[in-house]
Amino acid sequence: MRFQIVLLFHLLLQSASTVSLSVQFQNNSVNPPSFSVQGKARKTASRLSSPLIGYDGRVYACSETNLFAFESNGSVFWTVPLNYTCNVGLAPIHGERGKIYLIAEDKVIKVNPSNIGTNESAAEIFFGPEPGQEVPNEIIGLSASMSSLSVFINVRHRGLFAYGLDGQLRWTAGPVLHQFGYHQGCKQNVRDCYFTSIPVIDRCEANIYMSNTEGEMYALSARSPQFKWIQDFSSLDKVFTITPGNNGRVYVTIPVRAIVLALDVTTGNILWQMNTGPLSTTGCAPVVDSNGWISIGSLDGHLYSFSPTGNLKKFPRATELNSVVQVSPLLDCSGYGVYISETEMEGKTSHIVGEYTYISALKPRNVVFTMLTPSTGSIYWSESYPGKFSSLLSGTDLHNFVLDESVLLAFITASKIGNPLPCRTTYHKLAASCSEARPKFLSIYTGDERAILLFLLFESAVLVLLAALVRFCCIFWSKKKLHGQDLGKFLEKRHSLRLQKKAFDRTITELEKKAAEEASTNEVLEKLGDLVQEREGLQRKLSTTYSLGRDALTGLQRKTLLPVYDGKTRSYSFQGATKESVTIFHTVSDASSGGSDSDTEISWHSFEEKESAAEAKAKAKAKAKAPITDGSFSDDEISEQDYEGSSSEPASSSRSSMSPLHMLHGEST
Length: 669
Hints:
It contains nine helices and 42 strands. By secondary structure, the chain is α+β, with helices and mostly antiparallel strands. The relative contact order is 0.07.
């Protein structure tokens, strides 16, 4: 629901008999009620500016032409004259080595407290026109970054200026940038567009955040005028507050809609968006603690605290209907706790007209200050004003000034009232806050795991096939005999040789069976020997010249013996694929042997790799009877005694015996 917050305080100047307090009401929603700690409000009392709680625990605020440093008990520690009227709507800021920067009229004044009491001036002009120079436009905001050693100044209609601590200009940036042919910042055809916010510094990311009149938010680098990203919030509203999280997030508060948004500091994308109760003014900014919780007060009397992920906690859990929280919370010295100011109003009413919510009240009754820790929900201290604390302030230098709730809250925070948490240095608080920023990871879509696994298996199979193909091609084309030849002719020739070898295998197999079953003539045996030789020649070609892999240079010849002939006896030996050896002895008949033809006796032996013990003994006996010689045998190498024994037998007889060649091949198998 869209909200427009209007807080109407009806002016009613009267002194309260029960409260030592006089009230000055404002007829607008910008400034909270003011208080004077000395009875009735005095016209001569000066108003203090928005306060700054220093690293040393003091409170710094300016009034008229002076800058004051207050102790936490309200006494003035020192005063520095500025010679220019300061801007009470903007708080001073920290500089280097305890220095203070603030805006006075059209100038930026740098105050060096170490020069107080010396001959050197404690206040000097850091930025502004020299005498006789043109007066610049209004200075909207000021901030300083010690990591980049720079001071950033936003001047209306002129842009953002970055100065070194020595006062030298480093760079300037406007709301419009033309880069690489693109228009960045400020909508086109809009002329009166300029930066409208205080430069907000992210101390972890070294970013600067700005807003313009058109509802756009900028992220710049603290070291260069380049835009990192631009986010457009004009669809929500053109007025918003920027708060650095120093934890990887930056927060945007849109009061008119009572919305808090968390943005990623790297991309500017919206991480989450949450609604709050109605907000008092555009100046009511949230605060972020070291745990990453962002807290903001609402006119419904609650403090809304959101975790870094957007989880909500409301404080207090039970409150009176007439209460409002209209000033920004403040961090305690530990960085984990916050102080809030809750005002009880008299005659508070609220009503809705269309899309807007209107809240009105007559006057405040009292103020309740509370100290709590949002992350744990622990409430450590709570006290009303007027009360004990107001009596303590009445006797201090603060009685010379008109105070509002924000100033009172600053002094309570600086005094550490009711705070059991140990204080920490700025470095440790920033380190704890920056540690909340999570590292950026690439988001990879994994999809269906089963489909991805199948795809990986398929891809692996394809890679294996490609590797095998590449290896084959490398081996194939490395053959020197193939250089200059056509691949088609090579494959055709190889196919032809394989067909011929198959034909030889069938023919030799048939002849071997025929020779083993019955006596064969010399022509058949000679043909068988020729076929074996031709087949071995084809095998050599297929294994070397026409092979598809590496050339097999060894182990190519099969253990098949060529025919052996001594004029009377011819032998043939073969070895099949099943390690079977066949030896054929053919004895030629003499001419005187009558009509008897040549007889043939065949010895068939089969040797397996694993022989029985009996077969092994038979081999041993055969070896003892017949001498064994290595290598290839011919008729001349056979023992003469064997032939002499055979000559004593009848010429027409045929004999069958175990050939030494056959024994050699059988044992080797």
